[in-house]
Design goal:
With 71 residues, this protein is α+β, with helices and mostly antiparallel strands. The chain has one domain (4-70). The chain has one helix at residues 41-52, and strands at residues 4-19, 25-32, 59-70. The chain is elongated, with a radius of gyration of 15 Å. The relative contact order is 0.39. This is DUF1659 domain-containing protein. Pfam families: DUF1659. It comes from Mesobacillus persicus.
């Protein structure tokens, strides 16, 4: 049976930076690599909230991207 082994993890903070000419929001992301594999959703949310406090733009969402090796 195949197994998924967590290889690495990335945290992305998505900010709303303005509006385009159609009135739709513009989003930009800032990614942080080498997130600890054991980090919980609560811990990542706390870190993202702290980092977002340093930005001039409002935080829209927080995303975690995990890469796995399938063996």
């Amino acid at each position: 049976m195949a197994q998924a082994m967590l290889k690495n993890s990335r945290l992305t903070l998505v900010f709303e930076t303005g509006m385009n000419e159609k009135g739709e929001p513009i989003f930009k992301g800032k990614s942080y690599a080498n997130v600890q594999k054991e980090a919980t959703a609560d811990q990542l949310h706390q870190a993202a909230t702290a980092l977002a406090g340093l930005s001039a733009y409002p935080l829209s969402s927080v995303e975690r991207t995990d890469n796995h090796d399938i063996i």
